[in-house]
Design goal:
Strand order of the largest sheet: 1-3-2
Helix content: 40-55%
Largest sheet: 3 strands, antiparallel
Distance between the termini: 19 Å
Order of helices and strands: HEHEEH
Oligomer: single chain
Number of helices: 3
């Protein structure tokens, strides 16, 4: 089964407090795959880049985005289409 990453990430952001989603940098300083997926969604205007911040743990850096109205509308359209 193929995963619709756009729907998964937008759903996760929409359900979160303040509509925010974050990913943690790996110990080797690389980012997980969702980082590039969220950057792509930001370029489409579906999420807004909030920046990077150091977390409470040593070596814990997080990148955060916030879902936009366009992202919510896109998610609603995907949800409606799958229900039909």
């Amino acid at each position: 089964m193929l995963i619709n990453h756009e729907r998964r990430l937008l759903s996760k952001a929409a359900q979160a407090i303040a509509g925010r989603i974050s990913v943690k940098r790996e110990p080797d300083r690389s980012w997980p795959g969702d980082h590039s997926r969220l950057c792509a969604l930001a370029s489409l205007g579906k999420v807004r880049w909030l920046g990077e911040q150091v977390g409470p743990h040593i070596g814990g850096t997080y990148a955060s985005w916030e879902i936009t109205e366009q992202g919510l509308a896109s998610l609603q359209a995907m949800t409606s289409a799958s229900a039909a």
